[in-house]
Design goal:
alpha/beta; five-stranded mixed beta barrel; elongated; Rossmann fold; OB fold (Dihydrolipoamide Acetyltransferase, E2P); 37% helix; 359 residues
Amino acid sequence: MKVEAEQYGDRRVYTVSAFNRGVAGWLARLPTVWVEGEVTELRRQDRWQSVFFTLKDPSDGSCLPTSMPRGQFDALRLELANGERVHVFGRPELFEARGELRLRALSIERFGLGDHLAALERLKQKLAAEGLFERRRPLPRFPRKVGLLTGNDAAAKRDVLTAITTRFPPARVVVAETYVQGPRAAPALVTALRDLCAGDGVDVIVLARGGGSFEDLLPFSDERLVRAIASCAVPVVSAVGHEQDTPLTDLAADARASTPSLAARLVVPDADELRERLNQTRSRLQRAPLHLVERKRARLDGSYGRLRALSPRATLERGYAIVRHGGRIVRTGADVEKSSRVDVELGEGGFGATVEKTR
């Protein structure tokens, strides 16, 4: 919309609305930029369409009001708190009704996240080149003992234990709790994993952790842990974070589950389904001898019918006769002479006869 000014003598005068609209239009032509600062005055409400916060420069206290559509903010799953240092990608805009300059955020990253992502990508390529992500061993069908490596996070541990004990009560679960977040997590996880691998009779190990921010899940992309999983003597199932999270443990493990509950479904069968299949198998085995007898009886009846149809007796019953002379069957007229005695066999009974003439 074109911004018009009113003429007062030699002055061109803009209304406040026109002035703000003009400035807003000029700001809209500026490029998108990255801005660094500390998050302060973070405000988010479910009924609001946007999330509001202020970026503060810690060096001199300069402030920049910032807003972001709530859906985009929530999708980042950063769980930001006041005082955190971030990089915000966006463009300047003017809230015309109040003449307030603010930054319209398009994306947010914690400070240094880009460096972390680049380092992880380099590590991923390095480990892939070594073949650490190619091994996929089959999981045991009926594990006697399942190792569960998790934190003291009650939800993840409870989900796995509940699913295993419900689906397959005979399986025993050995739980190893350790740090799953922070700088001490990676070495602690490596030690606990090796202890489980060296334990007596563990058939499969589940590595479980609930969701969290990018930084929270960094220990599960630590090179030491990835190598420990690749060298583990038993299969490992990785159930870390949510569906969209892909720590490097997911790539090194023998199987990946999007949730701890699904991990339990992978490592143990369903006892109720096994019982049902066993009952069906027993029923089929019980019916099998009867089916076999019926099939043999049907084949025997068929053979009997064919033999009966081909037997001489069946031929006689259709009106034919068998003539014998001297104990041998008479096949031609030359087999007997005039006045010879013959025996005639019919379908029922028979009689003797004297040959009067031959042809």
